[in-house]
Specification:
The chain has 164 residues and is an alpha/beta fold. The chain contains 3 helices and 7 strands, in the order E-H-E-H-E-E-E-E-E-H. A hairpin with a 2-residue loop joins strand 3 and strand 4. Adenosine-5'-diphosphate binds next to helix 1, helix 2 and strand 7.
Length: 164
């Protein structure tokens, strides 16, 4: 079934499809100075893989490391800072205040956050909420977007294979 605003989720058969979805996000929202993306999903669901595809599309070269231990890896891309954050190992939301993230206004930088639920409400609210889940040997991706971004979010999913 196609929803009024377009597809809400897509099947990602392999890691390349997950990276391609990240790249599609970068293309669709690349005109925005700021973007906050919350990435939900179990360990291994593909959150870091998606961020790799997104950063590559923004022109970031070299290795994109998972920030599981550093909690945050900053990148410079097209004149803005892109923060790749992974809060899996955060033991207390108050620790977020020690990461220096308050220097990066969410309307002028991009925040790509894995395990945002561990931030306990101290993160900037998401423009996009992505959910990755295991499905049929691959993954399923769903996106919820702020109302003004819904059509664009659906367009991103529509470019991924197997969207519904
Ligand atoms: N759509 C997919 N289908 C199958 N495997 C995938 C898919 N997307 C990512 N993977 C694989 O899943 C593994 C874990 O991915 P990762 O991005 O590190 O997960 P997370 O950051 O959510 O813990 C990687 O080996 C990656 O290649
Ligand atoms: Mg990860």
């Amino acid at each position: 079934m196609r929803h009024r605003d377009g597809p809400r989720n897509a099947f990602l058969p392999d890691a390349a499809a997950t990276q391609a979805l990240g790249a599609a996000l970068a293309r669709e929202f690349g005109d925005r100075a700021g973007l906050v993306v919350h990435l939900h999903g179990d360990l291994g669901a593909g959150k870091t893989t998606l961020v790799r595809g997104l950063l590559r599309e923004l022109g970031v070269g070299g290795t994109v490391r998972s920030p599981s231990y550093t909690l945050v890896e900053p990148y410079e891309a097209r004149g803005r800072t892109v923060l790749h954050v992974d809060l899996y190992r955060l033991s207390d939301p108050a620790e977020l205040d020690n990461l220096g993230l308050q220097d990066f206004a969410p309307d002028r930088s991009w925040w790509l956050v894995e395990w945002p639920e561990r931030g306990g409400g101290r993160l900037p609210p998401p423009d996009l909420r992505l959910e990755l889940s295991y499905a049929d040997g691959g993954r399923r991706a769903a996106i919820e977007a702020a109302p003004e971004l819904r059509v664009r979010a659906a367009r991103v999913l529509g470019t991924a294979s197997g969207s519904t």
